[in-house]
Design goal:
Elements lengths: L28 H20 L7 H11 L11 H13 L3 H27 L2 H11 L3 H6 L6 H21 L2 H17 L7 H10 L3 H4 L2 H23 L3 H11 L6 H14 L2 H13 L6 H20 L11 H18 L2 H27 L17 H13 L6 E5 L2 H11 L6 E3 L7 H4 L8 E7 L6 H4 L4 E12 L2 E12 L7
Parallel strand pairs: 1-2, 1-3
Antiparallel strand pairs: 3-5, 4-5
């Protein structure tokens, strides 16, 4: 078979045409500034990482490494597999839990720098793009927190690049790269399915049908499907519980809610930094007139992600980090377009947006580290990440005083469950999550709590009337404890015995 060789394209040879091309560049001033900035933020994150406890999602995804499996109810297994070596070697440690996202975001920043350098033909603009990206509040949170999204963030720029390389060269190795990228994305998060549609649309719009329907594309699909086969096999063994779970989150209630839609959008407005939110949408809408293929392809990915999550928000409030790929692409692209416009006002807006966002970000890092500010009782925005080691330690001390051989800690909410299990690991203490919701804990809990003496942990935010809700031989309040931060209450914890637990009351 003879393959047509595409005509050469006129490109600016001063810069790499693709983020996949990792050829060395001379160390120019812009390179030094970009790499220095990336290194500085990485060091700051490493310093801050051990200063506060694990959040809800972090603890939950850490447990993927403890309860190693082919997949899980809410997400594929990559986030657990990636942390497994650290857990096996070093056990529980907040810093080590956060090592993968910290270095993955450093990689994301580097890839963004290479991408904007190629798109804009300017390393100075790429420096500004990296600065803007590292100023986004929620992206900074994702650079610290162990989430499945961390892996998708690191894949989007290489994915855009390899799709272009396939179009430009048709070389088989890029089809292999494509399969590996898609397979890795599928092991990270189910959102990866959204990568397929813009890929297909791009080749159709470019009329490259021979690429889209080639044997090499079939090879790429086989590689991707082979990589995600553990996820498919696990779901086959468990009645496709992950797919029903994810479908329920997308569709939610039968009637759409405009309130949920605007609440989700407003949350993104604040979470990404208000000015960077505007910048991202400016970059998105400007991209419709772009002639650069990298931007056009980014537009297809961004539009797919944006439409999907805006639609989902009509049925259930979406969390700000879910559409993070959209902002990862279009904050830097927005920087490019603002600088390309040459407008003094637009540049002033850009500089202010970056300066404001970086200032707030650094302030938040300082607060996480130093814990300077006091808030009214129970109003601290950091209440979820303080006090859990003490709570788990006190629970273990109470259990040691109980002579019953069948005893365990119990919580009634999955968000507390993940964190209490994590901070109870050093004590080798059983923890049960007792609720009516079917979730991942039903797969991890191999033994029934019936007949156990259960020490229930109630908090100010997650309370349950143990005597009213559960069948117990007797109930016995043990102690109440305030969790203090700078002299104010972050939380209040109550420990209650349920002797000889027999299940839920009707």
């Amino acid at each position: 078979m003879v393959h047509a060789i595409p005509p050469p394209k006129m490109v600016d040879t001063r810069y790499p045409s693709s983020v996949m091309e990792m050829k060395s560049l001379p160390l120019e001033k812009s390179d030094a500034v970009a790499f220095g900035m990336i290194a500085l933020f990485t060091i700051i994150r490493l310093a801050v990482a051990p200063a506060f406890g694990l959040g809800v999602d972090e603890a939950h995804y850490f447990l993927y490494a403890k309860y190693l499996d082919l997949s899980y109810v809410d997400h594929p297994p990559l986030v657990g597999w990636a942390h497994l070596p650290l857990y096996r070697l070093f056990g529980t440690n907040e810093l080590l839990v956060r090592i993968p996202p910290i270095f993955l975001f450093a990689l994301v920043s580097f890839l963004c720098y290479r991408f904007i350098t190629a798109v804009a033909g300017s390393k100075s603009i790429a420096v500004l793009a990296v600065a803007a990206l590292n100023g986004s509040f929620i992206l900074n949170a994702m650079s610290l927190m162990l989430l499945p999204d961390c892996f998708l963030l690191a894949l989007i720029f290489p994915l855009v690049s390899v799709i272009k390389k396939i179009e430009d060269t048709g070389h088989w190795k890029y089809f292999v790269f494509l399969g590996i990228i898609l397979g890795t994305a599928g092991l990270a998060k189910y959102t990866a399915i959204l990568f397929v549609l813009p890929l297909c649309i791009y080749y159709i719009l470019k009329k490259r049908y021979s690429l889209l329907f080639s044997g090499r594309m079939v090879m790429a699909a086989v590689i991707a499907l082979t990589m995600v086969s553990p996820v498919l096999y696990w779901n086959l063994q468990h009645d496709f519980v992950s797919f029903s779970y994810q479908t329920g989150r997308v569709l939610g209630p039968s009637k759409p809610s405009i309130g949920s839609f605007f609440t989700s959008l407003l949350a993104q407005f604040g979470a990404y930094s208000p000015f960077l939110f505007i910048l991202a949408f400016y970059g998105f809408f400007r991209s419709f007139k772009a002639k650069n293929d990298d931007i056009r392809l980014s537009l297809l990915f961004g539009a797919t992600i944006l439409i999907f999550f805006l639609y989902s928000s009509l049925f259930e409030q979406t969390l700000p980090h879910w559409p993070s790929l959209f902002y990862l692409l279009f904050i830097p692209i927005g920087v490019h377009f603002l600088m390309a416009d040459g407008s003094r006002r637009k540049r002033i807006f850009l500089y202010f947006s970056i300066a404001f966002s970086l200032t707030v970000t650094l302030f938040l890092y300082a607060e996480l580290q130093a814990k300077w500010f006091s808030f009214p009782d129970y109003q601290s925005p950091f209440r979820e990440i303080y006090g859990l080691p003490s709570i788990a330690g006190d629970a273990n001390a109470i259990l040691r005083e109980n002579s019953n051989s069948k005893k365990a800690v119990a919580v009634t909410n999955w968000t507390m469950g993940s964190r209490v299990i994590y901070y109870s690991l050093p004590y080798r203490q059983d923890v049960f999550v007792i609720d009516r919701r079917k979730d991942q804990f039903d797969f991890w809990e191999k033994e029934s709590p019936t007949g156990y003496d259960l020490l229930f942990i109630n908090t100010h935010f997650h309370q349950e009337d143990v005597a009213r809700s559960f069948k117990c031989q007797s109930t016995e309040p043990v102690k109440t404890k305030d969790i203090l931060l700078n002299g104010t209450k972050v939380d209040t914890v109550e420990y209650v015995w349920c002797r000889n637990f027999q299940g839920f009351k009707e």
